[in-house]
Amino acid sequence: QVQLVESGGGLVQPGGSLRLSCVASGSVYRFYVGWYRQAPGKQRELVAAIITGGSANYVDSVKGRFTITRDNAKNTVYLQMNSLKPEDTAVYYCYARVWDSDVWGPGTQVTVSS
User: How far, in Å, CA of 22 to CA of 44, rounded?
Assistant: First the structure.
């Protein structure tokens, strides 16, 4: 069973940047992988994903600011977040659809505040 572990969260001022990393215990290069987030009192939402074929999708609110990439050699998925806003504050989760299983990481907190 593949396991995912996120890192890179923290406290950042508005307009700042963070890069989240998600390390998988096994290869996920052939699977759908994505980053989701959940703010207090809100439902978990998809932020960005790499679908089969390698193309990336983004929620409208982060287009032009966030970039998802994957390093297959390192079994790692990244989320580069620029021009951060207070409304980006949430717990960010890495996700992979591995065959018929939904695999989630434990999450990493991102707080955007002055």
Answer: 18
Q: Which residues contact 92 (CB under 8 A, 6 or more apart)?
A: 6, 9, 20, 35, 36, 37, 47, 79, 107, 108, 109, 110
For 1-114, strand residue ranges (E) read 4-7, 10-12, 18-24, 32-38, 45-50, 56-58, 66-71, 76-81, 90-98, 101-104, 108-112
Contact 8, 105 (CB under 8 A): no
Sign for the CA dihedral angle at 54, 57, 62, 65 comes to positive
Encode pLDDT of 58-84 as tens digits: 999 999 999 999 999 999 999 999 999
**Environment class of 31 (CB within 10 Å of its CB; exposed 0-12, middle 13-18, buried 19+):** middle
Q: How far apart are CA 18 and CA 53, in angstroms?
A: 26
Structure tokens at 91: 């717990």
CA 7 to CA 94: how far, in whole Å? 10
Number of residues that make up the chain = 114
